[in-house]
Amino acid sequence: VDLDTARQELEEFIPHVKNISDSSIKKMAGRDLMRFKEFKKQGMAVRFGRFTQKENKQIKKNVEEFLALTGIDSAEKLLFTSRYPEDKDTIHRLKIEHHFCEKISEGIPRPWRLIYYRARKIFDPNNYKGRYTKEEKEQLKKYQALHGNDWKKISELMSRSNLSVARKFSEIKSAINYGPWTEEETQKLMSAVKDVMRRKLTAENPSSVSSLEQSDTDLWIDREQLDQPLPWTEIETQVGSRYWRQCKQKWNSILTSKLTRGQKLSRGSNGLRTKITLIKRLYETKAEDANEVNWDELSNAIGDVPRTYVQSKFYRLKVSFVPLWKRRTFSEIIDYLYEKTLPDLEEKL
User: Where is the Myb-like domain (predicted)?
Assistant: First the structure.
């Protein structure tokens, strides 16, 4: 399939395909296009976002079956072959002979690359090593000074995952404030987000910038745009005194405050009504996993709040009311809230 045709055919399954590079399109045409068409025949849509428990189990099953098929003796060797230079050629040959790409993505309606990255995260023994010691933090600073943001290289030197070292460096690279946000910090955050959104809107629709500049309120972009992913490491740099996760959490709290238009959704009788509505709506979805829930639809039902508000409200509900919630499935948690907690909340209201 030529490049233009591949891009057109992939657009049916991946709406943001126009933003994907030509080299990635070529790879997806080979690895994903036929899979996507087959999933469509089965009535299955291509998925993005957080992986479900069911998908994680399928990935583990696919990897274990491939290991049994090829005789490779560990998932780490299969997925982190560069750590085993003496076995590298043999493993690459076995991957080609036994169609590694097809086997690892079997039964999962997602782009192959995302499945591969998820498998690496699941099976990386360096991913779960607990807190960083003071010595490790100093090591990380030194390695970053030597190698820049080559997190793959640094992760090998520290025996930590790429994601782990990148995130930790983001936290420790400057004097981070863990106390309450000052007015100056909040203004820096708002300015940084506005700057990012202005550039994003300019790229997508130049005419929209004039309305952004003319707005006298902080609600200068509609709710759908405000709730989109933002480049948090860039925003972190502009704020200066907070790391990216703090910036993201603060922005979400600002969104909730502004988009509720002053409603006190968490207090008194309004708080009880919010909890009751949320439990009822979640029960009605009959979802088996959190990723099957339409959180945007739920947020509208609660009171035009961001999805993150609703998700955090659900988290507080399960932690506060559901005993041993970590051992229960998503649907078991919802059933417990509906059967045990809801009647008490309604009586209290």
Answer: 124-172, 173-255
pTM value? 0.50
CA atoms within 13 A on the CB side of 329: 11
d(CA 130, CA 192): 32
Secondary element (H or E) of residue 145: helix 134-147
Domains (ranges, CATH) in the chain? Answer: 3-123 (no CATH), 134-173 (1.10.10), 183-206+220-260 (no CATH), 268-348 (no CATH)
